[in-house]
Structure formats: structure tokens, C-alpha cells
Design a protein that fits this description.
The complex is a heterodimer. By secondary structure, chain A is an alpha+beta fold. Chain A is 37% helix and 25% strand. Classes of the chains: A alpha+beta, B alpha/beta.
Chain lengths: 379, 288
């Protein structure tokens, strides 16, 4: 789960980090009212994509009328496939310097890496590539966290101004603390602004939270409600299904994430366009198959469904009955091809044929059949 | 003789009295695995599936000489279960549990490492050594003893490949599901090292997927150290960046973790790459 910038800043502010004074607006009128209070301000579109500045979705307004006009232009507009529903208005800062401060889970190194640079305000991956010596990394012991002197070393190695190093060190300690407190996988402040008067302020915020840990963060439920997830994915999540919307026309269902991904690959290799990823896991019982089919078919682009099940411990005839019952209960007319393997797969195929479902011998065979049926060529 | 799970392994099942745990313990017993007990706190002293139940792993170690564990503990308590096993002196800890918070896994990883134990998983189907036993949820009926060592990040896709291998007359030394999470106890590279030193294993099959850089590391390791041939496969070639494909580990972030990078790494290492899983048996035969 990703937080919006304004949500990340609420979290930062609550932990004692300085953030700019700001307000969220969903209409130009609200934006104007906010600008009345804030004075000269920055209008920032709230979307989960980078490159907002370059795309014109972060702009300075010198008066309320300008703020209203900017909000009207941004709200409802699209940026890299996302629609802007909210803008954040913030008091403009008196920027002397821009730093970078972040923490990220490094899966391959098995660390959480704290990162600090005095080259903030630009793409940090570019800094890492062009000025690697300017990006200082610290990998604290996972059990005890960073010690104060380690953070100080990092700050001085980065070349942080002595006048502000205490505040920067404090900021880094807070980022580490928030990372654990909220089960984050990424916390990033870019830029961390140093103002002319020596204040250290989080001027932007990225915050990503481990979905597996959301069960222990009821405090984030309100943030989640406001998020802009795909409605089909929200519906699937509600039903406890592992579903990702992809946009093609071949609906896909498999048991197991690896098998589902491979099914997508096979369909694509045969010229089809997968509509979704869906892992029903386990033995594909009737109620689960029905629920999964309902979600797949809520996608109006879907013109056929390919179900790929490896029985394993579950018997093929049981899987087949589950699929048949699930399809019957739904009463759909889109073509459905089923490929299943495991013990008693022959008996399973016979059950499928009786129910007018198309059995396939392999993933490749199934992909060919469903694509042919969608294109009206029969199987 | 295969790796990880051998004739000397004495397996204890953590959470083996629950619904899933009971079912899987039964299948492990049916497969001939030497299961010596079950650990469920609060149920010590009872018998379940004709096995002694203990309150703690330490007790199972003391009483029945357990030296390996397999865990079916729901995610919120899974990390603690792993660490309890490591603290009790268990050498091989297999964690089947899925949806574990990644920071829990990270802490458990270092705890296990400091104890000198080995963790497989979490979010994995476990380990099967045909003819010896299985610690996990793989369907036993698809295996056959033989020369192929298999390492994979997924579950059902692994069963598919084992099934294809067995049907082609290619038995397995050991199959290891390392798990689909971003942080796992043992990586491809760790398991490759074990297969490299195993007499029974003559060829290694590596089933990778998008996300992370474990496949690239494995390819480099093979080029530098492997004493036996390997065959590889990558799933998720059509997975879009930034989306979590069921496995939390299968996320392409930025330009890292793409199928292209992994394919290129295996090609550079001279490891044959199957385009479809059906091609794997032929590539294995050619490599033997």
C-alpha cells in the first residue's frame, strides 16, 4: 500500500518531523480558500507516480485566484494513467539547500538501507549512477537499529552542513523508527529542504507499506479508503482473491502464483492478451472458482476465460466438479477452457466435456483453444 | 543421497494440530517421512495422529531428538516459531507460512543465521527428498528418486515441472521450494552450493521468476563454481512493473528484476533456458 504525499506528511508530522503547513483540496473553490490562509503556495497533484514536476503537476501560485486556476487544471486530469482527485496546497518554502533522506528494504542484501545525500531534489537513482560518492548508505543492524554515532558518521560523510547536522541526524533516526513502526518497505523524503533560517523540512514524502503487515495497522484504514486502487482489484481483495488487473481480453485463473504467472506468459506467447492475474490457490473448490469467475467477468473486456489447475494432492475429478459447479452457479456464456493435471485427470476431463466446458491437454493447448474461441474460430 | 532432508532427519511439525497442519502431517507420514512429534503450545502431553505433542520445540529436541522442523503457523506468529526452533537447536527450519510481514522475516533471518541454523522459506512448499521424506506440502505422488536437483521460487509450477520430469523418466535427488517472498532464508545460491557437493545430483533445474536479483546471482555463481550442468526457466515474462503477482517477491521495481535481465544473466553464464516448462525434460536429458 502506498500513501499519498499528504498522508505521508501527516505521518511525518506526527513523529516530530517538520513539514510545510498545508491543506488538501478536491475542488478549485477549496483550493482558493486554502490559498487565502496559506499565502504564496505550491499546488501539488496527489497521485502515486513520479515525475509530477516535469509534467506540470507541481506549480507555484502567488495568489488564491492562481491557486484555484491551477487546481482546476490538475483535478480530473490524468498523469501516467492515474487521475488526479486531490491537490495538496502548501506554504512555499524559502529553500537554501535540498537534501535526500530515505530508507528502503534491500531484498537481495537483506538489509534496510538508510540513505542520505546533499544532492536532493532530483532523481536519486540518477545521483546513485552519476555521483555514487554523494549518496551515503548505512545498513544498521536489524535488531538494534542505527546507533547515534553511525548516523552522525553518515551525515558528515554526506557533507551535511554542521549548522543543521543534528536535525538531519534526528530526521534519519525518525525515518528508521517510522519504517519499523508502520512496517514500511520504502520511506523517502526528497527533497529534505534546508531553509535559509536553518530549518530542516520534509518537502515531499513517499511511503510504501508491506501489504502483509496491514492486519496490524488498523490506524491506516482511513488512508486506505482514500487510495485510488483499481475497483476490480479492490473487489477481489474483499473476496480474499489474489487478483491483478492487466487490461487484455483473456481472463486467467490458476492455483498458485507461479502457475498463474506462467499461464499469462503462455497465453501471451500464443498471441493472446491476458486480462488479469488470478491465483485461487489451494484445491479450487466450487465456491472459490465461482467467486473468482465473478471477479474476472466483472471486467467488461474479458471475452473468454482460461482456467489452469494443477491438482497435486487434490484429485482431478474433484477439481473438475468444483469448476463445473462454479460455472453453473454463475450461468455465464463466455467460452471457458479448462486445463487440469494431477491424479484422475481423465475422469476430470470427462466431467468437463459433459458440462460443455472445453478441456485442454496442456497450457499451450489451452491458450490456443481460448484464443481461437475468442476470435470466433471454435476450438 | 540428496540434500537438506536425509535419513538422519527427525522432523517435528510446528502447528501440526491445526486443520492444515494435521492434513499435511498426515501426507508427510504417508510419504514415509520420519516425523517424531508435533509442537503446539498448550497441547503438550497429548497424542495427535499417533504422534507425541509437545508445548515447546526445545522439549521435542530433548524428548525425541528432533533436528528438523516444518512450520504451519499463521503469519502473525510465524517468525516467533522460526526463532523458537533455531533457539532450540533445530538445524533445518522449513517455514510454509505465507503472508508473513517482511520485517518479521528479516529479523527471523538474522536470528537463525546467528544460531547457525538453516531456514527454508517462508511462503514455500518445502523440501522433498524422494525415497526419504518430505517437509512441506508438495504432493508426494509426483516424485521419483533420481539425479535431478530442483530449486524453485513457486509451488504449483514446481509440481508441474516435477510431474513432467518424472513422466520423462527423470527422477529427482531433492526438490527445494525456496519461497516467493522478497526475503527468504535460503537463496538459489545457497541451495546451488549444496547440490554442487551432493553425489546423487547430476544436473540442477532452477525455476526462477521476475523480481529481485536472486536469479542473476545464481547465474554468476553457476558460471564461477558449478561442477555440474544446470537448466533454467523464468516465469512472469509478461508481468507488468510495480504490480505484485501473488508472490510478494515477484515485483519488478524500476528496471530491476525484469525477465529480460534474468534471461540475459543465464545466457551469459551458458545455462540453457527453457521457453516453456514442457521443454525442461529435453534440456535436462541433453545436459546429463
Amino acid at each position: 500500500m502506498r500513501l499519498f504525499e499528504y498522508q505521508a506528511k501527516q505521518v511525518f508530522g506526527g513523529a516530530g518531523l517538520s513539514v510545510p503547513k498545508g491543506m488538501v483540496a478536491t475542488t478549485p473553490e477549496q483550493a482558493m480558500a486554502a490559498a487565502e490562509q496559506l499565502g504564496r503556495c505550491v499546488v501539488k497533484a496527489q497521485v502515486h507516480v513520479g515525475g509530477r514536476g516535469k509534467a506540470g503537476f507541481i506549480k507555484v501560485a502567488s495568489n488564491p485566484a492562481e491557486a484555484g486556476e491551477l487546481a482546476r487544471r490538475m483535478l480530473g486530469a490524468g498523469l501516467k494513467g492515474y487521475t488526479v482527485h486531490q491537490v495538496l496546497l502548501e506554504q512555499a518554502l524559502d529553500i537554501a539547500k535540498e537534501y535526500y533522506l530515505g530508507a528502503v528494504l534491500d531484498r537481495d542484501g537483506k538489509h534496510i538501507v538508510l540513505m542520505l545525500s546533499t544532492m536532493g531534489g532530483m532523481d536519486i537513482e540518477e545521483v546513485a549512477a552519476t555521483h555514487p560518492e554523494k549518496l551515503i548508505r548505512l545498513t544498521p543492524d536489524i535488531w538494534r537499529g542505527p546507533l547515534s554515532f553511525e548516523l552522525q558518521d553518515m551525515a558528515f560523510a554526506a557533507g551535511v552542513d554542521r549548522a543543521v547536522y543534528r536535525k538531519v541526524v534526528q530526521g534519519a533516526a525518525t525515518v528508521w523508527k517510522l519504517f519499523w513502526q508502520y512496517d514500511a518497505s520504502l520511506v523517502e523524503i526528497n527533497p529534505l529542504v534546508i531553509t535559509s533560517s536553518g530549518d530542516v523540512i520534509a518537502a515531499d514524502g513517499k511511503f510504501e507499506i508491506d501489504d502483509n503487515a496491514l492486519y496490524r495497522h488498523p490506524e491506516l484504514e482511513a488512508f486506505r479508503q482514500a487510495s485510488e486502487e483499481d475497483p476490480l482489484e479492490v473487489e477481489a481483495q474483499r473476496r480474499n482473491l489474489n487478483y491483478v488487473h492487466l487490461g487484455g481480453d483473456v481472463g486467467i485463473m490458476a492455483n498458485g502464483a507461479g502457475l498463474a504467472m506462467n499461464t499469462m506468459d503462455v497465453v501471451a506467447a500464443h498471441g493472446g492478451k491476458p486480462a488479469n492475474f488470478l491465483d485461487v490457490s489451494g484445491g479450487a473448490k466450487a465456491d472459490v472458482v465461482q467467486s473468482a469467475l465473478e471477479v474476472i467477468l466483472q471486467d467488461p473486456s474479458v471475452r473468454g476465460v482460461f482456467i489452469n489447475i494443477f491438482g497435486g494432492i487434490t484429485r482431478g475429478d474433484e477439481v473438475a466438479r468444483g469448476v463445473v459447479e462454479g460455472v453453473r452457479a454463475l450461468g455465464t456464456t463466455v467460452p471457458i477452457v479448462v486445463r487440469m493435471a494431477g491424479t484422475r485427470e481423465e475422469e476430470g476431463r470427462a466431467i468437463l466435456r459433459e458440462a460443455d466446458l472445453v478441456p485442454a491437454m496442456s497450457a499451450a493447448d489451452g491458450a490456443e483453444k481460448i484464443i481461437a474461441l475468442i476470435n470466433g474460430r471454435g476450438a | 543421497m540428496g540434500i537438506l532432508l536425509g535419513p538422519d532427519s527427525r522432523l517435528v511439525v510446528q502447528g501440526g494440530t491445526g486443520r492444515e497442519g494435521s492434513f499435511q502431517t498426515q501426507t508427510m507420514l504417508e510419504y514415509g517421512t520420519r516425523v517424531v512429534g508435533i509442537v503446539t503450545p498448550g497441547r503438550g502431553g497429548q497424542q495427535h495422529l499417533e504422534l507425541p505433542v509437545f508445548d515447546t520445540v526445545a522439549e521435542a529436541v530433548r524428548e525425541v531428538g528432533a533436528n528438523a522442523s516444518v512450520g504451519f503457523i499463521p503469519a502473525p506468529g510465524a517468525a516467533d516459531g522460526i526463532m523458537e526452533a533455531a533457539a532450540a537447536g533445530i538445524e533445518l527450519i522449513v517455514c510454509i507460512s505465507d503472508r508473513m510481514p517482511v520485517l518479521d522475516t528479516l529479523r527471523a533471518y538474522y536470528f537463525v543465521k546467528n544460531k547457525g541454523a538453516r531456514l527454508i522459506g517462508p511462503n514455500c512448499p518445502g523440501v522433498t527428498t524422494p525415497g526419504v521424506g518430505k517437509a512441506g506440502i508438495m504432493p508426494g505422488n509426483i516424485f521419483q528418486k533420481g539425479p535431478v536437483g530442483l530449486i524453485s521460487r513457486s509451488g504449483t509450477l514446481t509440481y508441474e515441472v516435477v510431474n513432467l520430469l518424472t513422466k520423462a523418466g527423470l527422477g529427482q535427488s531433492t526438490c527445494v521450494g525456496i519461497g516467493g517472498d522478497p526475503i527468504v532464508g535460503s537463496s538459489f545460491r545457497d541451495i546451488l552450493g549444496l547440490f554442487n557437493d551432493d553425489d546423487q545430483t547430476e544436473v540442477i533445474v532452477l525455476l526462477g521468476e521476475v523480481g529481485g536479483a536472486a536469479e542473476e546471482e545464481a547465474a554468476e555463481w553457476i558460471a564461477a563454481h558449478a561442477k555440474k550442468p544446470a537448466v533454467s526457466f523464468i516465469s512472469g515474462r509478461t508481468a507488468p512493473p510495480g504490480k505484485r503477482m501473488g508472490h510478494a517477491g515477484a515485483i519488478i521495481s524500476g528496471n530491476r528484476g525484469t525477465a529480460e535481465a534474468k534471461v540475459a544473466a543465464f545466457q551469459a553464464a551458458g545455462v540453457p533456458l527453457a521457453d516453456t516448462i514442457e521443454q525442461i525434460p529435453a534440456l535436462v536429458k541433453a545436459a546429463l
